[in-house]
Specification:
The complex is a heterodimer of chains A (444) and B (140). By secondary structure, chain A is α/β, with parallel strands linked by helices. Chain A has three domains: 54 residues, Alpha-Beta Plaits, CATH 3.30.70.20; 276 residues, no CATH class; 83 residues, 3-methyladenine DNA Glycosylase II, Chain A, domain 3 (Orthogonal Bundle). Helices cover 37% and strands 10% of the residues of chain A. Chain A contains 16 helices and eleven strands. The mean pLDDT of chain B is 87. Chain B has 140 residues and is an alpha+beta fold. In chain B, helix 2 packs antiparallel against helix 5. The longest helix of chain B is centred in the first third of the chain and has 21 residues. In chain B, strands 1-2-3-5-4 form a five-stranded antiparallel β-sheet, covered by helices on one side. Chain B has a single domain, classed as Histidine kinase-like ATPase, C-terminal domain (Heat Shock Protein 90), CATH 3.30.565. The chains are: A alpha/beta (444), B alpha+beta (140). At the A-B interface, helix 13 of A face helix 1 and helix 2 of B.
């Protein structure tokens, strides 16, 4: 069920069928078919790399419009801490939180609060429980999905805690029900999201029966509305709403969560390629002396999410300035870790990358793939619609593509079936793919 | 019986590519759907042996033969050979030069670790001719 919904979608009218996204996808989940990109649903981890790379803006995330909050009597905004890094010269988070009320929300509950609680739970678990090291953070849903499809054996290293968003939503609901006496159905909880992976996590929760979040509104959608309100906000109208410290706000950028684990033996890696490198090392047991690993699919952490507005490096610097005068942490777990903060059930692996259901069949297919790859030029040019020659060969043996999808094979067939000589055929195809002509190799 | 054969070349003193062969072998085993713990054992053992080739043996070749029952990996080099195999198998014994140790390699755990992560390990070595290490890991 978790594989069905994806928040990344394609606008077919804008898609030119170029090679940018198929090359960028970390799980090789995109192919170009009949001039348009298509996403292989079970492989997609909603990381947003394709949204970021698409020069034609054909890829987008299905976030909710702000108007969705109108369907509820009491509307709560859950701002991700990365939202605070979007504004120039912001010295007080209360400006952002007050402006959220002015654009239509009845209350705000900072996700930074939930983050401080998750940090406290992480510290407690590292100290008191016998966990498989290194412990891997579960804050980034794209990373969890990547581990599920590509590193299923590392599921046991994941810390079995829900995200700051989930915890904030749960606490916000309890607070709102006490305050207003309204029912769950009348209360709407909306995450102000920096990324599509979080949208997917709401529509199709991981290791959880349900979520207390009703929808996700992109930071890029509320940003212009907030700026307008913040510009006109006189200091006397400013409400004191901020309830989190350095640790909570620090979660917005890479390294914030890991440093809050208060162990020195931590790694914080960001950017999907770097995440993959670290997971490979964990898989080979090269990092067994590390206690905790924070992984963020986006460069810079959540401030690098593709639904943010500001440059991620600029946002990180702004957050450092904002954090300067904040207390370390304002939220703690008084007694035991609340049951609701833990996973409802274990995460199941999703083996979508193996070739067949059993080893013998997979071996047959792999041998076919290896044979076929030899007949391809190995340029990984992408003109067949697959990201690499090997990916095309795998698609072919799985029955999803044909050898005729390779233009070089077509060239060879033309040579075999017509009177044309190699030189004549060369003239029919683009320069990079022609045979070597020493004379014409010069640039000038 | 169905089998898959994979071949890799290992370059001497090339630390930027060290681990590439064992990494590719690992990915192939995962694609074939082998159990995670078997994949890990193969990856760790072959990585160690590959690094040994880079450091000591001026490179070499790695040939893996995969059947549903067993992974056999033969690592052959034309390096200096191992003068005393028994001594080389001792944990902590190392002949790695200082420049290699400073990179974090050469702790003297290579051969003992390879043995630990495999079901069978044989070493054929001759001074001045080279070393061939054969590893077997069974799919239980």
């Amino acid at each position: 069920m978790n594989t069905v919904f994806h928040s990344v979608s394609l606008d077919k009218d804008k898609c030119l069928g170029c090679m940018n996204c198929i090359k960028r996808c970390p799980t090789q989940a995109i192919r170009v078919r009949r001039g348009k990109a298509t996403i292989i649903s079970e492989r997609c981890i909603d990381c947003g790399e394709c949204i970021r790379i698409c020069p034609h803006h054909a890829k987008s995330a299905m976030s909710d419009p702000l108007s969705v909050i109108e369907g509820y009597k009491y509307k709560i905004a859950l701002p991700a801490p990365s939202l605070y890094g979007q504004f120039n010269n912001l010295d007080d988070v209360n400006y952002v939180l007050t402006a959220l009320l002015e654009i239509g929300f009845d209350s705000v509950f900072e996700v930074a609060k939930g983050a401080e609680i998750v940090s406290d739970a992480t510290r407690k678990m590292l100290k008191t429980q016998d966990l498989i090291k290194p412990v891997i953070s579960t804050a980034c849903p794209a990373v969890i999905r990547l581990i599920r499809v590509r590193y299923p054996e590392l599921i046991d290293n994941l810390i079995t805690l829900k995200t700051p968003m989930d915890e904030s939503a749960r606490l916000a609901r309890i607070e709102a029900k006490e305050k207003t006496g309204l029912s769950d159905e009348e209360i709407g909880v909306f995450f102000i999201t920096p990324c599509p992976a979080k949208i997917t996590a709401i529509k199709s929760p991981l290791a959880a029966d349900h979520t207390d979040v009703n929808g996700a509104i992109a930071i890029s959608e509320v940003y212009p509305l907030l700026v307008q309100k913040m510009d006109k906000l006189e200091p006397e109208r400013l409400l004191s709403l901020e309830q989190s410290g350095k640790i909570g706000v620090g979660w917005a950028a890479s390294g914030g969560e890991a440093s809050a684990s208060l162990t020195e033996k931590y790694i914080a890696a960001d950017g999907i390629e770097n995440v993959i490198k670290i997971l490979e090392e964990v898989e080979d047991e090269k990092l067994s002396d590390i206690e905790f690993i924070e992984l963020n699919a986006c460069t810079g952490g959540c401030v690098g999410g593709c639904l943010t507005v500001a440059n991620n490096f600029v946002a990180k610097t702004r957050l450092s300035a904002l954090k300067k005068y904040l207390p370390i942490s304002c939220n703690h777990i008084e007694a035991d870790i609340p049951k609701e903060l833990g996973w409802d059930y274990p995460l199941e692996p999703l083996s979508v990358l193996k070739l067949a259901d059993n080893v013998t069949d997979s071996m047959k297919l792999m041998n076919q793939v290896s044979e076929m790859v030899k007949s391809f030029p190995g340029l990984d040019c992408g003109t067949c619609g697959a990201p690499t020659c090997r990916a095309l060969a795998e698609d072919i043996v799985r029955g999803y593509a044909s050898v005729d999808d390779c233009i070089f094979r077509i060239k060879n067939e033309m040579a075999a079936s017509t009177e044309l000589k190699d030189n004549d055929i060369d003239k029919l195809i683009p320069v990079p793919f022609r045979g070597i002509d020493e004379e014409k190799l010069k640039w000038t | 019986m169905e089998e898959v054969k994979l071949h890799y070349d290992v370059n001497a003193y090339d630390f930027t590519c060290a681990g590439e062969a064992s990494g590719k072998l690992k990915r192939s085993l995962k694609d074939l759907g082998f159990d995670a713990s078997l994949v890990r054992n193969v990856a760790i053992a072959v990585y160690e042996a590959e690094i040994n080739m880079v450091i000591h043996a001026e490179g070499g070749i790695i040939d893996a033969t995969i059947t549903p029952e067993c992974i056999t990996v033969v690592l052959a080099d034309k390096g200096p050979g191992i003068p005393d195999v028994e001594l080389a198998m001792k944990e902590g014994y190392s002949t790695a030069p200082e420049n290699v140790r400073s990179l974090g390699f050469g702790a003297g755990m290579g051969l003992p670790n390879i043995k630990k992560y495999t079901d069978e390990m044989t070493i054929d070595t001759e001074i001045g001719v080279g070393t061939t290490i054969t590893l077997k890991i069974y799919n239980k």
